[in-house]
Every structure is written in C-alpha cells, then in structure tokens.
Design goal:
Blueprint (H helix, E strand, L loop, with lengths): L1 E5 L6 E5 L5 E7 L6 E6 L3 E3 L1 H9 L16 H18 L4 E10 L5 H11 L4 E6 L4 E6 L2 E6 L4 E12 L6 H18 L6 E3 L3 E5 L2 E11 L5 H8 L10 H12 L9 E5 L3 E6 L3 E4 L3 E10 L5 H16 L5
Antiparallel strand pairs: 1-2, 1-7, 2-5, 3-4, 3-14, 6-17, 7-8, 8-16, 9-10, 9-15, 10-13, 11-13, 12-13, 14-15, 16-17
C-alpha cells in the first residue's frame, strides 16, 4: 500500500509506502468511521517529476467494478432529493447532504498523467492517489477539516459550503446552506479553546466552481486534537444537522456505501498534522472510474439545480482523466 500526496499551494510531491514499522504518517478514515487504512513509514519521501512518473507508471489496475453499487440516473436522483427536501421540511432541518456515485467507462487509465492534470488544475487542494491492496482512490480536495501546528499549538479549520459556477451570483439558498456549518464549527471550538478568531465569509475558488468559506483559528492542546477532530467529523458540509439523525437519513436515501468519500485523510509532517475532508474524489477500477459528488440540500433547494451541482463537482476528476 502506498500514497502519493501534493499539499495545497506547494509543488512538492510526497510519497510513502506502508512498512511494518515506523510512524503512522497517513490515515484514510471512511465517512462512517467503520473503515480505516494506515500507512506507516519512517518519513514522507520527496519525489521529483521523473520519480513520480516512474512509480505511477508501474501500476496495472485490476480491480473490477462491483455491479451491485446503485448508480442513480437523473430521475432517480431527483426523486431522492425530493425525499430529502420532504424530510428537511418535516423535521425543520437546516440542511442534509445527499451524494451520488457517477460512473465513467474507461478502457485504460494513465495514472501519472491524470495525477499531473489534477495537480496542475487544482493548486489549492490536496491532490492524492492511494494505492491499497484491493482499491485505488484519487482526489483533489479543497476542504481542510483541521490543520494543527505542533510547535505553536495552533489549530485551523474552515466552514466550506454552498456551490455555484464561477459566473453565477450567490442566492439565499447558498448563504443559508453555509451558515449552519459555520455555527456548528464555532460552537465545537468553544469547548476546546478560549482563543478563537473567525474570518469574514469569502469566495473560495476551486476550478470551475466556487464555494462560501469562513476560516477559524484557535489555540488548543495537542492531546485534545483527536477528540476535536472526532467531534467535528462529519461536519454539516458533508452530513447535516443534527449529525446522527442526518447520517441515518443519508443511508436511507442514498442506498450506497460512501466508503472514503466525505471521510477524512490525516497526514502528519514534522511540523503539522493535517486532516482533509475527502471530497472531489473517485475510486478507480479496471474499466470504470466512479466519482462521488454531493450537495447540501435545504428547504430552498431545487432538485434539478442540485443535480447540476453534482455534475459540476464530478468534473473535477472526470474531466482530468488521461488515457
């Protein structure tokens, strides 16, 4: 098992292969926290372009797609969203996040070129490829669940929600979708720190789309970090409020296993511990790529518009595949 990483706003490629000893440097945790993959190594190695190319060119993808995975078509997904809106209204929920898997048929895939495309197109994201024993995942995720500086004891997180094409103006729906995420994070942080700074809400650009974003900075003790992350995950940006009720309704409506989608990726370097929400991601099979995308549904949602949002989000991966 090995992982390739490019942290946001850097040009450095990192790589680790799982060893029987060393430090737990990278961890992938599923949305439901029932599945976890750990990568142990002495350190994260730095790769140059040619080393990255060589390592990624050596893989043959042999995993077959599991046909029982439910792939909703346009009308089926709209029906799921109508059901979600009904639940939201009946229970007075601020939001509920519904996702869907999206399939693209392939005959072959150039992993090295695909990864290069993602890194070029999305410089402000974590770009990764995870090659495990029986599965391959890749992604370019814009959302940080947490970043902790071990020397300064500072914690950073963000409220990222609401999605539109770059040329469109924000409406009440997107503003109301992001507000509960911001409130949720703020309330949790108050239990861990008396020193919290919150930014104004601003636009976060990610390729062909934009989101509403609010940043948080806090001083916390490192021994509280894992508890804080456990409490934050899953945020309303990928689940809904209240958390447990919404997780139950997500399973009821979506009817597929999110696996690592909307889970989180932990990466530990010498100075920092990162936790990225695993969005804009896909699972790679021998003859298919399954991207997963979702959206925050509110009482004001238009199912057709939400369908288009998932189409836009899935393009982050599917439009950058190389063959």
């Amino acid at each position: 098992m090995e992982v390739f990483l490019r942290l946001p706003y850097t040009n450095v490629f990192l790589w680790a292969e799982n060893k029987s000893e060393g430090n737990k440097l990278v961890n992938f945790t599923s949305f439901d926290e029932q599945k976890s993959l750990d990568i142990f190594a002495e350190k994260l190695d730095v790769l140059n372009e040619s080393e990255l190319q060589n390592k990624l060119s050596n893989f043959t993808i042999n995993t077959d797609f599991i046909e029982e995975t439910e792939i909703p078509n346009h009308s089926e997904y709209l029906s799921k969203l109508e059901k979600a809106i009904k639940i939201i209204k009946e229970n007075n929920l601020p939001k509920l996040v519904i996702s869907r898997p999206i399939i693209k048929e392939i005959s072959s895939l150039d992993l090295a070129k695909t990864y290069h495309n993602l890194c070029e197109k999305y410089p402000n994201t974590l770009c990764y490829i995870l090659i495990a024993d029986e599965e391959i995942w890749m992604g370019a995720t814009p959302e940080i669940l947490g970043k902790y500086n071990k020397k300064l004891n500072t914690f950073f997180t963000m409220s990222l929600a609401g999605t539109l094409p770059l040329e469109e103006e924000w409406s009440e729906k997107e503003v109301e979708e992001q507000k509960p995420v911001t409130k949720y994070i703020s309330e949790i942080l108050k239990n861990y720190s008396s020193e919290i700074n919150q930014s104004e809400t601003y636009n976060h650009i990610s390729g062909n789309i934009k989101h509403l974003r609010t940043d948080f900075f806090a001083k916390i003790n490192e021994e509280k970090l894992e508890n804080l992350i456990s409490e934050l995950h899953p945020t309303p940006a990928v689940c809904g409020i209240p958390k447990d009720f919404c997780k139950e309704k997500i399973m009821e409506i979506e009817k597929y296993n999110r696996e690592f989608y909307a889970g989180y990726i932990k990466i530990e370097t010498e100075e920092d511990i990162y936790y990225f929400v695993n969005l804009r991601c896909a699972k790679v099979y021998k003859n298919k790529v399954m991207a997963i995308a979702g959206g925050g549904i509110t009482a004001l949602s238009s199912p057709e518009k939400e369908w288009k949002e998932t189409e836009l989000k899935s393009q982050a991966i599917l439009n950058n595949l190389a063959f």
